[in-house]
Amino acid sequence: MIIKHFTDNDLYKFSVMLAIQKLYPWSYVKYAFTNRGGTQFPEGFAERMREEVASMADLRLTQEEKKFVKTKCYFFDPVFVDFLEGFKYKPEEVTITQQGGELNVIIEGYWYRTVLWEVPLLAIISELYFQMTGAIPQDVEKKAIIKAQNLSNLNADYSEFGTRRRFSFDVQDKVVGALQAHSGEYFKGTSNVYLAMKYNTTPIGTMPHEWFMYHGAIYGYRSANIKALEAWVDVYDGSLGIALTDTYTTDSFFNSFSLKQAKLFDGVRHDSGSPLEFADKAIKFYEQNRIDPTSKTLVFSDSLNTTTIQEIKEHIDGRIHDTYGIGTFFSNDVGVKPLNIVIKLTDVKVHKKDTEYLKAVKLSDVSGKHTGDNKEIDLSLRTLGLL
């Protein structure tokens, strides 16, 4: 059994789950697995994966986990925490098939429930693949300690974001332990709620792309960023205040980011495109709106390593507070090629009884990396004046 703990999941999945329950409890959606790296999965992989998914039906929030969530996740109301205590995964929401080496995974159901599947499913796919191909991790703790020391020497605030594409739970567990022990004040926490509890650190995360994708599909692409951020504020009232910028391109985001939102949100997160250009755009935006950039935070989370972090820090040069969410570089730097895999929202309905799904898409600051239905991508690009 790969997923052994209910909170072996990223914080942002629970935070968006609460927002969905409060605002869109009837919404019905589909997600789909995308194998960006073209990995060929071994024979029998789908059957093994179905067994792993079936075992998740037995997961429950323990009293220890509940106490931790109530203490650390102060932005979750007691009704939601009690709901999590009674939540049960439904394996029938996940359809897994395999043709040759090609793996297909579809998730379908009420959005407030299916939102929790993405991260553990990706973690299962990655760990199971390395199990079945006989891969053995090398120098896990040694590498993590060196990275922790290097990042401390750079005075870089950072968090561990590696659940989705980790080599294994055991590797991520050892990495988080090593980072905490060897980074001092610079290690700020982990996205993984269970590991945050185990190592008595802070669970880190705010909002995902799917939150904006849903609003774009339902309300239109010109309104998507505004509607998504206002809805987030309605739920969290200023908590979890790092806004994700690139669902419909960063330029589109800053064009719609209002003065009120800019003052309310603590900062913004970069997840695609040039981090140096992003930093300059963000600083310029704050300056033009008469906001002191040093009062805000930029979170960088796209394919980071020690070298790229050093480049970003040197470029920013103290003009704004910078922090880093580091994923695969921590949790799957063990001598194998990590899988390049994602699960994305693809179809949405306001209500299950609606006759047709609406397509959900994600653009990118990198040309050619847009995700979703091609016709809908074209529509979103034209609507936003990006063609």
Task: Give a verbal description of the structure.
The protein has 387 residues and is an alpha/beta fold. The chain has 2 domains: 171 residues, nicotinate phosphoribosyltransferase; 192 residues, nicotinate phosphoribosyltransferase. Helix content is 45%, strand content 15%. It has a 6-stranded parallel beta sheet with strand order 5-4-9-8-7-6. Strands 2-3-1-10-11 form a 5-stranded antiparallel beta sheet. Helix 14 links the parallel strand 7 and strand 8. Helix 1 packs across helix 11, helix 10 crosses helix 11 and helix 14 packs parallel to helix 15. The model has no long low-confidence stretch (mean pLDDT 97).
The CATH superfamily of the largest domain turns out to be nicotinate phosphoribosyltransferase
Helicity, as a percent range: 40-55%
**Name of the CATH first level of the largest domain:** Alpha Beta
Calculate Rg over CA atoms: 20 Å
CATH-scheme architecture of the largest domain: Alpha-Beta Barrel
**If you consult CATH, what is the topology of the largest domain?**
nicotinate phosphoribosyltransferase
Based on the structure, what is the oligomeric state of the protein chains? single chain
The ordered string of helix (H) and strand (E) elements is HEHHHEEHHHEHEHHHEHHEHEHEHEEH
Shape: globular
Strand order of the largest sheet: 5-4-9-8-7-6
N- to C-terminal distance: 47 Å
Low-confidence stretches: none
- Count every helix, treating DSSP H or I runs of 4 or more residues as helices: 17
Number of domains: 2
